[in-house]
Amino acid sequence: MIPASFDYVRAQSVEEAVTLLGRTEQATLPLAGGQSLLPLLRHRSITPSTLVDLGRLPELRGIEVVGDHVVIGALTRYRELETSHLLAEEAPLLRHVAGLVGDPQMRHRGTIGGALAHADPCADIPATAVALDASVVLHGEAGRREVAVEQFLTGPGRTVRSPEEVLVQVRLPRAGGRPWAYQRSCARALAWPTVAVAVAGDRVAMAGMGDVPWPAPATRAALGESASAAEAAALADEGAHPRDDRVASARYRRHLARILTRRALEEAGR
């Protein structure tokens, strides 16, 4: 399909982007890499009056260590994540998962901020961010605020971001040397996972097990009490609310959650 007509504005600064997005009389959306937004436009699932392009803002790119955190610009592309020597030391889980997303063309365009703002509960990056205890920094008319990713994501395509706010950074606690693993099952090549499990130390998070990444609280608690991988994995779906859909039944997703969690925990040496 052909998208509905819309105006296009290229922001020259974060402050200008906030001003443009804050025009309440218009349906205005930010544009990052476009890998999630453009298909929605083509299918007319969304019909904004204006797109504000953030892609030329250098302050929204890059990976650096600031104090006890790794700070990643929201427009940092998957390709930059998967080839980062800094992430190889400080957040190898994120580096690994970024290399699994889509195909090379997608990884050269898609951004970490766009993945989190799109809030697909079956996507790799949001679940990984939850496992890493990441937070996002939002810049709006009232200044900047930091929100844990686990609270930032509220449902499929929904976050706590206000319409005028720009997601500017992703922050990860430094934890080099922490055991990690990632396991996933996909229905076909290049598809989002049916279920995926990210493990970072004692933290576990899953994609495909509900409306937001599932933090597997029973598994986390069991790990804190020195349970074995098998014992902790048997609790992986406890309290989760997976859905039946055209990809898989809820029952099958629960089965995958337990199997993949055990594999991930064993791979991480738990």
TrEMBL record:
This is Xanthine dehydrogenase family protein subunit M. It comes from Salinactinospora qingdaonensis. It holds the Pfam family CO_deh_flav_C. Keywords: FAD, Flavoprotein, Oxidoreductase. Gene3D superfamilies: 3.30.465.10, CO dehydrogenase flavoprotein, C-terminal domain (3.30.390.50), Uridine Diphospho-n-acetylenolpyruvylglucosamine Reductase, domain 2 (3.30.43.10). The keyword Flavoprotein applies. InterPro entries: CO_DH_flav_C (IPR005107), CO_DH_flav_C_dom_sf (IPR036683), Diverse_Substr_Oxidored (IPR051312), FAD-bd_PCMH (IPR016166), FAD-bd_PCMH-like_sf (IPR036318), FAD-bd_PCMH_sub1 (IPR016167), FAD-bd_PCMH_sub2 (IPR016169), Mopterin_DH_FAD-bd (IPR002346). PROSITE patterns: FAD_PCMH. It comes from the Bacteria. The lineage of its organism: Bacteria, Bacillati, Actinomycetota, Actinomycetes, Streptosporangiales. The keyword Flavoprotein applies.
